[in-house]
């Protein structure tokens, strides 16, 4: 038997990709290959070397390399796609669709060529449609192509609730469903602080305001940064999903999954609660929704379908 460390390739060495690579190494989840286009090869190698040189100080063992050559990604267990363009103030995530769809196709062809058995996590926006594009291009089974949005959206919701109640973020749970757009669906009814439903902690107006801030959470950061979008919390979210898969934790997390009838939707990717483990997406969990919640999810699914139409 040969024991080897997990190999994780992160495609795109920009803000989210580089931050993800560092966090993966800091958690010793495996060796990391950071990949970008040939024009960005120098900075990609430089970032990887700088990260590698932080490992003796941090007391972690992880090889981190930077490259523009996909051959170095060969036999990755997990590939995280962050490549593409990010939005600037005044843009919506959907404005990125045509440019990033092309990037998804070219990146996925290379990923599949060198790592035909990997699991792929997609971050690039508009992420529900981009995950679909990666799924279509890869020809992989649905359990091996998963998108990230819900862990991040839920983290924002939990942050705002914990601030409001002045309690630990650890004791606040939440669930955000739907597409990663301004009509995502934070499910207050399934959210708790210390095991007590949020509706018992806060009046409806405060909860509504926090739901609204969560929906616009990405835009809030875009407005503040001025030249790009969020990356610390997105990277942390990807790493939580990666850890669930690489350690076969079978965590229950929201993720963008391929739906074949679940929640009443067919042939599309949308954020739903799932179990993540060694096979990637192990299972989709179907929650019972009220009529109002289902209508909100339908609106969100319609927005995702509109973006998917551009792809077709
Ligand atoms: N799903 C989510 O929750 C989130 C999604 N995002 C999305 O992630 C994407 C990346 O964001 P950032 O890292 O902030 O952008 P960035 O601009 O800092 O980095 C993107 C990197 O992708 C590279 N790239 C472009 N085309 C490529 C190709 N064909 N092959 C390999 N690399 C390529 C660029 O050279 C650049 O280094 C954006 O689309 C952004 O909207 C960002 C945060 C959260
Ligand atoms: O808002 C953006 O463009 C980036 C993103 O998806 C997020 O931070 O939620």
TrEMBL record:
Catalytic activity from the UniProt record: (S)-lactate + NAD(+) = pyruvate + NADH + H(+); (S)-malate + NAD(+) = oxaloacetate + NADH + H(+)
Binding site for NAD(+): 12-17, 36, 100, 123-125
Residues the entry annotates as binding substrate: 87, 93, 125, 156
GO molecular function: L-lactate dehydrogenase (NAD+) activity; L-malate dehydrogenase (NAD+) activity
Domain Lactate/malate dehydrogenase C-terminal: 152-309
UniProt keywords, alphabetically: NAD, Oxidoreductase, Tricarboxylic acid cycle
Enzyme class: oxidoreductase
Residue span, Lactate/malate dehydrogenase N-terminal domain: 7-147
Active-site residues, Swiss-Prot/TrEMBL: 180 (proton acceptor)
Source organism superkingdom: Bacteria
GO BP of this protein: lactate metabolic process; tricarboxylic acid cycle
InterPro entries per UniProt: L-lactate/malate_DH, Lactate/malate_DH_C, Lactate/malate_DH_N, Lactate_DH/Glyco_Ohase_4_C, Malate_DH_type3, NAD(P)-bd_dom_sf
EC numbers, comma separated: 1.1.1.37
Family of the protein in this entry: Belongs to the LDH/MDH superfamily. MDH type 3 family.
PANTHER family listed in its UniProt record: L-2-HYDROXYCARBOXYLATE DEHYDROGENASE (NAD(P)(+)), L-LACTATE DEHYDROGENASE
Function: Catalyzes the reversible oxidation of malate to oxaloacetate.
Protein name as annotated: Malate dehydrogenase
